[in-house]
UniProtKB/TrEMBL annotation:
Record key words, sorted: Cytochrome c-type biogenesis, Disulfide bond, Redox-active center
Annotated TM spans: none
GO cellular component: outer membrane-bounded periplasmic space; plasma membrane
Membrane topology: Single-pass membrane protein
InterPro entries hit by this protein: Periplasmic_diS_OxRdtase_DsbE, Redoxin, Thioredoxin-like_sf, Thioredoxin_domain, Thioredoxin_ResA/DsbE_sf
Subcellular location: Cell inner membrane
Ranges of residues in domain Thioredoxin: 35-171
The protein's name in its UniProt record: DsbE family thiol:disulfide interchange protein
Family of this protein: Belongs to the thioredoxin family. DsbE subfamily.
Gene source species: Sediminihaliea albiluteola
Keyword Disulfide bond: yes
One Pfam family from the record: Redoxin
Keyword DNA damage in annotation: no
Amino acid sequence: MAPRLKLFLPLILFVLLALFLFRGLSLDPNAMPSALIDRPFPAFDLPALQREGELGNDLLQGQVSLVNVWATWCISCRVEHPYLDKLAKAGVNIVGLNYKDDPQAARRWLQDLGDPYQLNILDSEGRLGLDLGVYGAPETYVVDAEGVIRYRHVGVVDERVWRGVLAPLYTELGGEYDAAALAGDL
């Protein structure tokens, strides 16, 4: 009986490998789960990009916020930047996390392209990004008024992502913005 089993062993291994690969291909390639969902935003004490002083977790207390990880070296960040400007003009609270970037280049970027951020955390060494599990930029976290991470989006925030995913969660958590102004600006 054992010699016959050896004949079918390659076929069995092939079927198992095919099932494994099929399962992997059926997963959403943009889904990047985070161990931090429903946990407090990691503690930090980092400089502000555009002013003197340190910023800490109290920055994320009291109102729903989007924390947007960005950098001047990030091509996709340039793509999403105009939409973030529209969201900010509609009243969405956005905090920037300038990730592993040159501070002077980042300040020029905001001066030239507009500044959608309430404040910018300067994470030159990437320590906070490491604590967040950042894969790269852009990434956007939805943080509730108690400073708890409720959602993580990897990639560009655009109209489709905002309307389909982020806006419903933002408003469900108590975040307010002028949807009519945003719709009229598109």
